[in-house]
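Sample pair:
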Amino acid sequence: MGKPIRVLIVEDSENDALLLLRELRRGGFDPAYERVDTPEAMSAALARQTWDIIISDYVMPRFSGIDALKLLQKSGFDLPFIIVSGKIGEDIAVEAMKAGAHDYITKGNLARLVPAIERELRDVQVRQERKRAEEALRESEEKYRNLVERSNDGILIIQDGLVKFANVRLAELWGGSEEELLETPIIQHIHPNERDKVMERYERRIANEAVPPIYETALLRKDGTVVHIEINAGVISYKGKPADLVMIRDITERKLAEDVLKSRVYISEFAAAHSEDELLRFTLDEVERLTGSCIGFFHYVDDDQISLRLQMWSTNTLATMCTAEGKGTHYPISDAGVWVDCFHKRGPVIHNDYEALPHKKGLPPGHAKVVRELVVPVITGEKIRAILGVGNKKTNYDDADIRTVSTLADLAWDIIERKKAEEELRLSERRKTILNRIANVFLTIPDEQMYGEVLAVVLEVMESKFGLFGFIAENGDEVIPSMTRGIWSECQVPDKSIVFPPATWGDSLWGRAIREKRAFCSDGPFHTPEGHIHIDHFLVVPIVFGNETIGQISVANSDRSYTREDMDLLDSIANNIAPILNARLQRDRQEQERKQAEDALRENKARLDLALRSALMGVWHWDIIENRRYFDDQVCHILGINPATFTGAAEEFFGAVHPDDRETIKAALARTIGQDVLYEPEYRAVWPDGSVHYITARGRLVRDDNGRPARINGIIWDITERKRAEEIRLENERLAYANQAKSEFLASMSHDLRTPLNSIIGFSELLKQKMPGELNEKQEHFVDNVLSSSKHLHALIDDILDISKIEAGKIELAIEEISVPSVTDDVLVLIKEKAARHKVILNKEFDPRLDVIEADKTKFKQILFNLLDNAVKFSKEEGGTVTITTKKTDDMAEISVSDTGVGIQEKDLGKLFTKFQQLEIGRKTGGTGLGLAISKQLVELHGGRIRAESRYGGGSTFTFSLPLRSKGRKDEESEYPCR
């Protein structure tokens, strides 16, 4: 077999064509051929298949060799074209060669045909290989140019320390043009602190030393600003000499995010052992460091949303930037400068040209010059709670600065709110202890000592040197019997007294407190008569019963200024004293009347005296001789006895007493009669409805004229609430300890697990992106497993922290008006990609009547996303449909998520909203088992409810309803006259 060759013969003579074929076979070819003799036939043959060579006659009846040559050239095929003719002359041959023919042969010299064909086939092969090489080169250059010019990374070539090439992205990153960068020393574009490190690595690479190709440094931009970058460098040959090919990536955002995350951890750890002011200053110092600012302040906005309270400045502000005073100062927002624009805008405000602001009000004496500033509000619910501002960054503030400042401002406020809640709990327990001590004084200390003992407790609690506890007499005078407890001996006023008629009150704070029925505190100066004790700080609260001031408590000369906390505590003491003091005052007035009564009223007086001593509790007496008990209606009520049918028989009384306590009462009575001691048992009463009440009794033995035991007079009161309060207190202490342990554990878990976990996720993503280098298939599989498992663990930690915060009551809803359709569309965007992976179609059916509701936008999204995520996750293998439906019903918004998934078995419906509960559906779906539990509690926090319906194998529907208007939204006003 010869060499195959496909020949298109343009020849009108079949015999001549056979001669050509014979010559080809003799020359070692095995020709496949087709003979044509018209333009149409040749065009069809060219279109029908591929040819290796064309042999054409020069002259034919309906065609010519030159026409055939032109037709070939027009077709675009690069084929050898040889003219074979018996009548061709030299001039015609030359003309044909000029027209593009590759050779010409006379029919009488066919011996030249095969060598000519072999030569032309070789030439064609050479031309085709060269063309392919040229096209490959052109394609390679095009790809390289696109890669370099469209890269998101800056690319440059450094040779002899100079920039030889820079792409557009690098120029943009530097802040100029590529031309400006060329032939400039690379080292001048590096931050001065980084130049030695960069130059040392460059020189070592050029010297072929082993140097890590990837490292971080800082680029000095044309305008002098600094950009954090990641360098990936390697040595190449450029124009015959070693050069550094460098890829530069802007990592400023990543570095900032890492710094903010670190600052969040630092601030959270710092807050645990420091005060509120120290926390604020530390936060401001961190914000200044991250934004490059020189000034920082954090001020509170009062609940009235009208006034500001200057609170804290950064360390640098107080040390070098501002000597203006004002901590704790309240003044109207309307009087503040342009930095409160963020309050009116209810969002962050940047003033990068402070001097050009037309509405600025100027700066107080001692304040540093402001060049530029960034101020953000802290908003919870409908109210702005605080304002954090920074100033005098060397360059303009931008959106990244807004994100940084807002994040740390919100974090600081969250910590402050939590610390306030903890402090409020501590104060609540402290108040209970104080009030119990004072109540014990009222119950156990004689009248003449009671005022002084109560005041002693108050002075200890308020950390004060002096104080007054007085009452308003029936004639309107203020009487201060407690003055003898220290003030009397130190006061050198000549006409000092413990009785003060209204005419002597003047404009004193304690006089105003009595008249105006409100508290006052002051740090002076005070106008006191000659000889009066010196007063530095003073706090007074009125004691009000009903709508009448019946007394006042004052404290003075603490080592510090009195605070709102002090005022609230003393006011709480006064409120609890009021009913007892009123009872004592009433008793005293009645006692004066009883002194003029007949001795026959002595018994009633004793009973009343005991009753009033115990704040008008139930009064009883036991006639020992007749063995009969006499109870007033209050005693009957306390014991659960019907006063209308009570005869006083012992059986009736003991019938109301718990069986286990009857012997205790009998023994106490026997001791009182036999030893003449106070009768004071505690026992339980069982009411007809079966409820148990705890009782305390007090009684004294009364003898007749012959000294024989005649009766026991006494009082009783129901201490059930006190007992329960004690049990609650003990339980609260236990829960507080457990909650503290849980909080410490969660904080530890958040810090100790999230930090390394974020590193695992981050480095896994870098491996997946093949930043360190290419991975084989098995390595990619391992990286995917690490990344998915890490993200699953991260989600588990987040969910556990969420459910713990909800259960601890630490979640506070930020109620605002939200658009249900808009927020729902936002959530659908988040779930869209996952739905596509599961072959799930997302549908929505919105009620046009339901638009705006009042809810926490973030929590609403979390609830809806959990339900959509479950619906997609539990879809069938072949996919399905998930439909979200909204509907307005009366005053509620109803949102449903329905799916056509695997459904839930009836026996499992009751487990749906249980923590850490995942149902068995025959395949693994992942998740923490907390999503539905969190959603349920978030819905209930809004005052709503959630339910589920499902048919096993036929899909599920989860529906939650929220109030259109939140019951938690209200504007509270409070008065704080302690200015």
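Residues 611-615, 970-979 have pLDDT under 50 and may be disordered.
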